[in-house]
Amino acid sequence: MPGSVTQRERKDLTTAGRLSAVLQGFLRQVPTDRDGAARIRGRHIYVMPTRTGLLFALVLFVTLAGSLNYQNNLGLLLTFVLGSVALVSLHLAWFNLLGLEVRASGGDGVFAGDDAYFTLTLRDPGHRPRADLVVGAAAGSVHPIALARGAQETLGLAMATAERGRLVLGPVTLETRFPLGLFRAWSVVRSHATTLVYPRPTATAPPPLVIQVGAQAQAQGDRGEGADDFIGPRLYRPGDSPRRLDWKALARERGLVIKQFGGARTEEVWLDWEQVTGRDSEARLSLLCRQVIDASEARTRFGLRLPGCIIPVAAGETQRQRCLETLATFDQDPR
Amino acid sequence: MLAATLLLGLACLPLGQWLAPQVILYLYALFALRLAALYWPALAPNRWLLLPLTLAGLINVVAAYATVTGREAGGALLATMLALKLLEVRGKRDVRLLAILFGFFLASLFLFDQSPLLLAYVSILLIGNLALMVDLTARTGPRPLTAAAGHATRLVLLAMPLAIVFFLFFPRLEAPLWSFGRDDQTGITGLSDELEPGSITQLVLSGELAFRVWFDGPAPAPERLYWRGPVLWHMDGRRWTGEPIPRFDAAPQPLALAEDQVSYRVVLEPNNQRWLLALDKPVLIPDGATWTADFQVLASRRVTTTERYQMTSAMQYDTGQLDPAMAAAAAQLPPNVTARMRALVDHWRRDATSDRDLVERGLAYFRDEEFHYTLEPPPLGPNPTDEFLFETRRGFCEHYASAFAVLMRLAGIPARVVLGYHGGEQNPMGGYHIIWQSDAHAWTEVWLAGEGWQRIDPTAAIAAHRIERGSLVDGLGATRPIRFAQQDLDRLAWLAHRMRLAGDALRAGWQDWVLDYSTARQLALLSLIGLGFMSHYGLAVVMVLAAAVALALTVALVARTRRDPLEVLYDRFCGRLARIGLTRQPNEGPVAFYERISARRPDLGPLVEPFLSLYIRIRYGHGATIDDRRELARRLKRLNIRKGRSGGRDGRGAAVKQARSRH
Fold it and tell me: What is the predicted pLDDT for the residue at B117?
């Protein structure tokens, strides 16, 4: 998905990082089982010495050579104990990951530019206590955590977003340097957890197309400005009262926006692809997104018309959600 | 950080006895600065201060040893640099580096001392160091320090089998590949190839171990144990030396008589000399050793590590004919022979019927005149022999042997002085004899026609009541030589002596099995398991195989997952219900299961409820205590599930119906 790829590129700017990302691609990933948990098995765990480990090996070699040369049996014994400790620690690192269950899920949808949230749940199925588990994803890594035997822990992962669409968490790396920091054992968990990224709403949008709903129970009225109900924002024009300025919008860097208030009445609007104009379709989607937000804030009944997709008029949170999802995945989902 | 400082500080403690005081002082000044900087961070030296500190450390070491290589200087430099690195620590990475170098530092301590005590001390420090590394890596659990120490101990215990396999089979070098110059051997005491008044006294007072002997058969009486070392031919008036007479490098002519042979194994402590001590007179010498015509057995190089060898000696012997070169060397007289010495010998010669008789007269002279045996003889002037014989008459074995040999040469009997050890104490706990440096001795050998070179110990001629027991002798305690009888040990001293013997038995075993474990031992072990034919390659093969097995076993031990006792109880509970046909479905939680039980068997509901409710509380609630678990086990035990227990026949009928309906 475009979103996650750009994130990854942004993180791994160095060549070494890029190389490791490429290598990472060759590694066997932990598949997600039918129940939504990825279980780490032996063949999914990779172990490599860390820089500390390599240094340790070097010092150990010097110690070995010295002890051999001086025929110092106790020195040799110490060397062998250290070497064996390193070997055992390699296996402990491996066992520290073995059998772990990882569940990933996406959080609520966010607007492009905001942080998307994912939830990761690590669980030990009653095998052994775990220590020093570091979860890393394209979004960055989280402080190491420990798990008691049979315990589970939930972590939140934040991921910066740039483009609308379905943001897939992507491969999650679970790594440990337990116990001595000489070896790094890691597993790559393939996760299908997604979070929806809505288009970034523009600061303002032109007022949508109002459908006057005939002679039904709706009160008729002009669309003139009043002071009763908030009907939506519009850009500041010289002469507007500063009391009407939307300071919150200013704080959110949406520019000088005036809150429009209208008389008490209900109306239905169509938010229409054809009615908004923008440089490209993304700009149009951003405008539509703003309209959806405004309309739902104004508690207007609204519908959405996109090429090849029409969402009938409705009101409420569900409608807002549905429209935002449609905007987010417009032209992307093959489904 | 504090932990790292403390570890290094503790590790430097034993160095105090081996390194120069100025180095130790500087080290602990650095530690003090480090500790102070922990509390007042402003004290932490910056880079510009560290540079002069480093230079000062380097200069300090060079000033103490005039070099930076070798054991002492190298150890001092390493310790100083580690302490400086400690001051420079900025982050976790530095501490990690320090922890890794610390392992090397610990190994270097064994160059100074290889006692079991130091090993135990180092083991504790090693665990501390590993705990530090664990703490640097995984600071996630509760109570991190305890957990880290636990992890470190577990790691070491798990690593032990593998380490032992490596230790047993890892191929050793038979000779060093390199050497940083000659290490300082001044601390080593032992015989030297010259004798002057006072030299043996020094040795006797050192109280150190000289060597240990295992006799193949029954051991000869301690009085008969004369261990030969250097043979001295030349007397310059004050000193006996082996020079300038050329060594009699050829092998000795075979003994004309060699009876009463004993075989024995010697483990010789390093003495920085070449002599391999042998019972008088050696018959078979170890491979690689050489011997000289005067029966000195020499190792191929100086003994700087423990040397072990097997020898056979004849206690009764006849060396046969006298070699003319030897006869000349054994007739050399010191330049300072006085008239009264000559008169004394001439007097003996007049009366003596044979050379043997003359020797006896000489011994009788020491016995009958007022000669005293003492470790604290009065100082002697430019002509020690004359002064000793006629004026002071108080001396130690070196005085007696020297004076006697000079007198014999004056009488025309070929004589030489032999240095070595006399006696040896049996250690009942180890089945071996201990020979201390305090057993060092000097005696005389004379050549008599028909008998060959014969050992004459003039010191033994002194009347027992004239052996002086000065404070020096008493200070020798348990190691006093057999010349000072030991019957008067009181109970406490006796106990101390036994303890000392027991301690020595332990040390001997340690030396034998750990410190001197060598290629020869490895090959012996290999033939023991029937792979002797494979030689050195066999070692490598066996090492790899045994290491693989040890590692596999260790991993299996780690892999063993201990089940949650709660789960075990619950499984047992489910198993009992399964026996009456109520099998828990895999996706069924305890509550759902309970509902199904109650629905199918209303009578069982109230029975299983106490168990299940407690189980649910422990499983999903917080803070299960051991008591809770015990109570759960009790409730499981009390649970009496039978097929159709409640309603008599009805119940049974229901159970049968259930069983049927399942088919």
Answer: 87
Q: How far is CA A122 from CA A4, A101, A130, in A?
A: 22, 6, 10
User: To probe the interface with B, which of A85, A127, A143 has the most B CB atoms within 10 Å?
Assistant: A85
Q: Which residues of B touch A122 (CB under 8 A)?
A: none
Q: Which of A74, A149, A180 has its CB closest to that of B110?
A: A74
Cβ under 8 Å to A: B residues 592-621: none
Which pLDDT belongs to residue B63?
Answer: 85
Asked if B12 is an active-site residue, the reply is no
**Distances, alpha carbon B430 to alpha carbons B222, B268, B425, B509, B525, in Å:** 17, 16, 11, 8, 22
Give helix B605-620 / helix B565-579 axis angle, nearest 10°. 160
pLDDT per residue over B149-192, tens digit each?
A: 888 999 999 999 999 999 988 888 776 676 654 454 445 567 77
Residues of A in contact with B97 (CB under 8 A): 52, 55
Q: Which of A59, A73, A89 sits opposite B100 (nearest CB)?
A: A59
Q: Which residues contact B14 (CB under 8 A, 6 or more apart)?
A: B109, B112, B113, B118, B121
Helix B116-137 to helix A73-97 angle, to the nearest 10 degrees? 30
Per cent of chain A over pLDDT 90 is: 12
Contacts of residue B367, defined as CB under 8 A and 6 or more positions apart, other chains included, come to B461, B462, B463
Q: For chain A, how far is it from start to end, CA to CA, in angstroms? A: 15
Q: pLDDT, tens digit, for every residue of A270-301?
A: 888 887 777 788 888 888 888 888 888 877 88
In the prediction, which pLDDT does B163 show?
93
Bridge partners for B230 per DSSP: none
H-run or E-run covering B61: helix B47-65
| Range A133-157 average pLDDT | 79
**A87/B162 Cβ within 8 A:** yes
Domain boundaries, chain A: 28-197, 209-328
Mean pLDDT computed over A6-13: 42
Greater confidence, A57 or B588? A57
CB contact B554 to A (< 8 Å): yes
Interface of B with A in 286-325 (CB under 8 A): 305
A168 beta partners: A194
Cβ of residue B160 closer than 8 Å to a chain A Cβ: yes
Q: Name the fold adopted by A28-197.
A: Immunoglobulin-like (2.60.40)
pLDDT at B444: 93
